[in-house]
Design brief:
The complex is a heterodimer of chains A (about 650) and B (about 140). Chain A is α+β, with helices and mostly antiparallel strands and about 650 residues long. Chain A has helices at about 1-25, 35-60, 70-75, 80-85, 90-115, 120-140, 165-195, 205-235, 245-270, 270-295, 310-335, 345-380, 385-390, 395-405, 405-410, 420, 425-440, 450-470, 480-500, 605-644; strands at about 505-510, 515, 520-530, 535-545, 550-555, 555-560, 565-570, 570-575, 580-590, 595-600. Chain A is globular and about 85 Å long. Chain B is elongated and about 70 Å long. Classes of the chains: A alpha+beta (about 650), B mainly alpha (about 140). Chains A and B meet through α12, α13 and β1 of A and α5 and α6 of B.
Amino acid sequence: MIGELGQLALCFALALSLVMANAGIMGAAPGSGTARHIAHGAAMGFFVFIVLAFGALTWAYLISDFSLRTVADNSTTLQPLVYKITAVWSNHEGSMLLWMLVMAVYTGAIAAGGRGGERITSAALGVMGLLAAAFLLFILFTSSPFLRLDPQPFEGAGLNPLLQDPGAAMHPPMLYFGYVGLSAAFAYAAAAMIVGDPESEGWARAARPFMLVAWMALTCGIALGSWWAYYTLGWGGFWFWDAVENASLMPWLIATALLHSALATEMRGAFRTWTLLLAIAGFSMSLIGTFLVRSGVITSVHSFASDPTRGFFILVLIGLAVGGALALFAWRAPQLQRGVAFEPVSRETTLLLNNVFLIASCAAVFVGTLYPLALDALTGQKITVGPPFFAITFAPIFFALLALVPLGPRLSWRKAELKEAMRPLYPALGVAVLAALVVLAVLTPRSLAGAGAFAMAGWLLATSVIEIRRRKGARASAFAAAIAHAGLAVSLLGIAGTTVWRSEALVLVGPGDKVNVGPYTLRFDGTVRSDGPNYRASRATIDLLDGNSVAATMHPEQRIYNAEGQDVSVTAIRTTGLRDLYLALGDDRGHGRWTLRAYVSPLAPLIWLGALVMALGGGLSLFGRLRAKATEPKAAPAVALAAE
Amino acid sequence: MKRLLLALLLLTSAAAAAVPETFSDPALEARARHLQRELRCLVCQGQSIDESNAELAGDLRRTVREQIAAGRSDDEIKDYLRSRYGDFILMQPPVEPVTWLLWLAPFLVLAGAGGVAWMAVSKARKIPDSADSQKIADF
């Protein structure tokens, strides 16, 4: 019964999204108040029905209703409650419903917020309605989570063991808030083109909270995915240039470019058409990412469903959304274009440069991910594009961008004096040089790349501190850029530390054997069987020695999940906050001997801490805006009073 | 794929026992690790043979170490493996006509976007200031 209710709710949501699309776009015309009211009502109804559908599916998981195929495939009665809930979106069907839920939340926010004026809001709702309708058709025809099984099994198959983990559980919702948030930015951009000048002036301002939320969610989502890969996959790496990881990095790069370009559009009315194009590109990257993960053209540790029909459907959707938006752009953009004067030395120019480097680095990721697929499809030739490619293409381009980062906030709009702006930054240059020299003098192995990374991080951190001090006493949102930029530096330190100065030992050990790795001495004390409810495991005991006494004991595990026959290495990580000792148990070589991977990764935790700091910067900016909006009505009478 | 597996099996079983899993000479060991990171585990999802726990990766690691022990250079070892398994085994795609576009694309985009930005800046410079300052005055 609950399954049919869910299915019905999806059908109603589809009908309402079509109404929303139609009425919303009609409401973009001047004086169509009735259409706007209808669009608004349809948006609210759409939100309610999607919540109902999602609630129905969650309920089915909670009561273990195995007459639903997705539930039988992904849950068991024994699964802990939290993993019954996260199992809802751990599979293709459920994750598409999660996508819809996030879309419904954003649609509700657009309708309730009503920023940017009535006509823009209405047109944005219309575009969201079109997108929602397309995705709902996709769900209903190719991936309904409410399909029945007959006869229903007595017990379900259970959730993939790799996904029974907090990091893996939170990763998809985070990423979807990012991907779908970019669809809201896309909707506002399309709305601006539908409405046309001069009503569309405020679109960038109206869309900015959505861009910020999307960007923060992507930042956290990517960091979470990378952290999960680090502690689950068992070889100490944090980023593998895997196609699914790249699929989430590309929208982030474009979203970052969009945030910066939209700033110039909002503050100065500059780069209007460019910002529109970036909003379209950002959502296109989200769709391409979804296509890569969902269609089965790539296989990866992160992707869980693949089916050619679905891939085809998403490809058509990309064609329609991107093609439609670009056609609209070609038609309307020339009317929106407006020349705005600025000098070569100005904040506008730095924002342009930011965009140039971000787009080129995104291009590196894009070709690196898609070129092997295209080459295979066209010629049948198989090549691998692995980390060395990205180290040669992506890394230098992104590094060049980092050098320019501190300049932007120092330069004033329209026209700036480079020397004057740079003068307060000289101490930061000193910090950078000092950092490089210290690294070269103290750390072994001596590494120019490592010294360069530390110099860059020093430059970014010191300039952020200078900027924060300069703005002392200003409201919180004034610190947003400096903090986000400092976050970049923190991540960079972590990446450099782990990549350049990681020590490792890949050894065969028997009971009593000692292993030296980095500054640590470890003693392997053998393994014991430690089986769980649905897996067999060998649990090692490894002592961290301090002289002759035991400073700590660590327990990496090797598990084999019964149902899937899958090996999972459960790593043991001991962190000081600035250095990780990372142990992963390998294969059983008989006679109590095992292969063991031990890594000492200096500064590793900073990689993810930096991402959090970046997101915090985004949060400050968002908070400042929402508060500014909340106080607006109050501020107006105050001004009026002052005028009297 | 089956043929590939068979070939690997034949290739590696012959001298499997003799070669150590780690070289005692740190320079040789570093070379081996570096080389292992540049070779792809053919049955895995984008992992190098250095990272993978797959049996096949172990066999390939052994092959690399045998060849190092036999005194071959890194390039010779790579060429040897490439002649058997194709470009797919190299983590860094070789530069050849079919990959020129791959290697150039990021820098072409960089140059193209840079050119567009250059034009935008020089255009913005020529715009008469008056219209703009008028707008600022309107605020």
